[in-house]
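hey all, quick one before standup. I had two proteins in the batch that finished overnight and I want to keep them in one place so we stop losing track of which output belongs to which input. First protein below, input sequence then structure tokens straight from the run.
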Amino acid sequence: MSYRASFQCISPACGQTYDLDEIVYRCGRCQNLLEVKHDLEALKQRSALQWMRLFDDRYKTGQWPYGSAIWGKKEWVLPQIDNENIVSMYEGATNLFWTERFGKVIGLRDLWVKQCGNSHTGSFKDLGMTVLVSQVKQMIAHGVKIRAVACASTGDTSAALAAYCAAAGIPSIVFLPKDKVSLAQLIQPVSNGSLVLSLDTDFDGCMALVRKITEDKGIYLANSMNSLRIEGQKTIAVEMVQQFDWELPDTIIIPGGNLGNVSALGAGFDLMFELGLIQRRPRIVVAQAERANPLYQAYKDGWDTFHAMTAQKTAASAIQIGNPVSVEKAIRTLKAFHGIVEQASEEELANASALADRCGMFNCPHTGVALAALIKLKERGVIGAKERVIVISTAHGLKFTEFKVGYHRGTLEGVTSKHANLPVELPADEGAVRKAIDQRVEQLAASL
């Protein structure tokens, strides 16, 4: 069976299509964003059960490239790509963690966290970057003159781009807002050999510059307005359902910044729905930091208007974005998926993150935003006690040790650390050690 995909304008009134080998990010006719569209009639030649069996047979195997959770679904991602051009670190297949104890604390018995940070570069950005860099490698093999791949980033996108380009032998350029990413995030593209441009601006300023630079078609744009990224990220939706033996959750909560991840979730569920693997669509909740919440403001206004903003400093630095490029796609997705947008203050996100850590996790502050939104929606009765809920954790907590240390030292601005836990400094004396142990064990027993 021959499967095909192409770029298509998101405007139903336009519908202009482009080959995936073309260097194009917006519709040349109407300037709307593009999305990757698949030949559904060809995909429907396989039944839903046959697709499930195929994906299960490939899942986490050693057969190149299908052991990757993305490339195991190649027909739904980039069906025309040659396997020798795929650049993969066997990404995906991350833990869907039953957070039993955290769920009990907040009154949910069926709460799960999709640990996307347990990936090659420590974030869900790997899922989209494997697709984009693989397509670039194929384009170069086909004679397209691409000198380098570039992105603006708040940290995780740059890390993924740098790693995958380094593996492919393709030069990469990253635009970072100076002093607004963690040290761990900064050192990743440095180590992988990228040209790292630390600019005296915020993410939105970096994004404006990279869009101008990539008007030169020799520099290929890797931000999520390039819908190749969405093709990899949409597999999160498929994989979560697969991990539940093809049963659908009720609600999914995801942090939102540039908002490509929101439309990616929708694209994955839409494709499963069209091909009969699921019979309904789940509810999607987008969680934003209160200091960078343009989507939340539009949601509160009934989607009547969307106004970009100047994002303020937030511990959730990866979503410190005031002018998200994928907002049109995100709003379209939320309207189709009974969507909700909730926000979290700095104190709410920090304490939610710390409480989750106390229950066995170690996630990023952006996951803290999603967990804080979950707590608020559960307390208001918007999320029911019996719902199956998945929170998508977008990055590993080890990328944000400064945030963790600041929380436990009580130095985060505007945050009262309810779950602080500093080391106990003692002399090397057995009696003092025993006393400290007894006190702490009694405290822990009382809190459980």
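OK second protein, same deal, sequence then tokens:
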Amino acid sequence: MFTAVVQISLPKPISPEEAARAFELTAPIYQGLRGLVRKYYLRSEDGRRVGGIYLWETRAAGETLYNADWKARVKKLYGAEPEISWFDTPVVVDNQAGGAIIKAA
């Protein structure tokens, strides 16, 4: 598995309510998306950065999403370019699934 950390530095701070509205607007895009295991939306405490943590079955699946159209949509919604960092994710501990330790294939 692979984790992508997407961060966006905002031109002006966003409130928790504004962030929740923006996140809820885009959430349906990610529901049932092939290769995406899980996505967490993020907002810094000062509201100056937003982003997401994406757990992917493969890096290729994630790279398919992060295309020019996706980047343009992010820039239009938040007014800034996204920064994407990739991490190999060989093990995940899932406490909601009884503390299961999931090893990547």
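Flagging for whoever picks this up: Strands lie at 2-9, 36-43, 49-56, 83-88, 91-94, 100-103. The chain has a mean pLDDT of 93.
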